[in-house]
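Q&A FORM
Asked by: J.P.
Topic: structure of CKLF-like MARVEL transmembrane domain-containing protein 3

PROVIDED:
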Amino acid sequence: MGDIEAPDSDGSRQSAFFSILPSKEFVCSRKGKLLIGEVVLSFISFICFVASAAAAFVTAPLIEFLAALFLLFAYSTKFNERFKGFHWPLMDFLRCVSASIIFFIISIISVSKYPDGASKAAGMFGFIATIVFALDFYFIFNELADFLKGGGESNEEPSNTQDDDSDSDSD
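REPLIED BY: S.T.
REPLY: Here is the structure written out as tokens.
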């Protein structure tokens, strides 16, 4: 019986491992690509700052790496759909705006003030991360603007109460 149970436990471990990984559909989506880019660029920038003379800036890429990694996990496993109390796109928008501003500032400082190659590399990866974060908050802003134009209503049930009122008032 021990031989029969071993494949089941390995299969459950593999299914648990694969449930953590993002789905192929999410990875191929625009949001998935942007989040993966944010995770990778933040991590590379973090490693470059650790190896550079500008190690004082190591905290910002680490925090942005962890935040992007959490949102990648949340969106890919649909964790965000379980908690309806949070407005996830707005929180993601604020994260991307702050990350792009912070990466831009620390990249300028690391490129202009520190002469070593690791600081220059961290600054260049920081500039690329700034662009990726800015693209992400641009797309999120467009989605939020469309949501707010609709008055925060879902698009599934358009209300025709205005048309009904205008017909009855014209008598």
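FOLLOW-UP: Confidence is low (pLDDT under 50) at residues 155-161.
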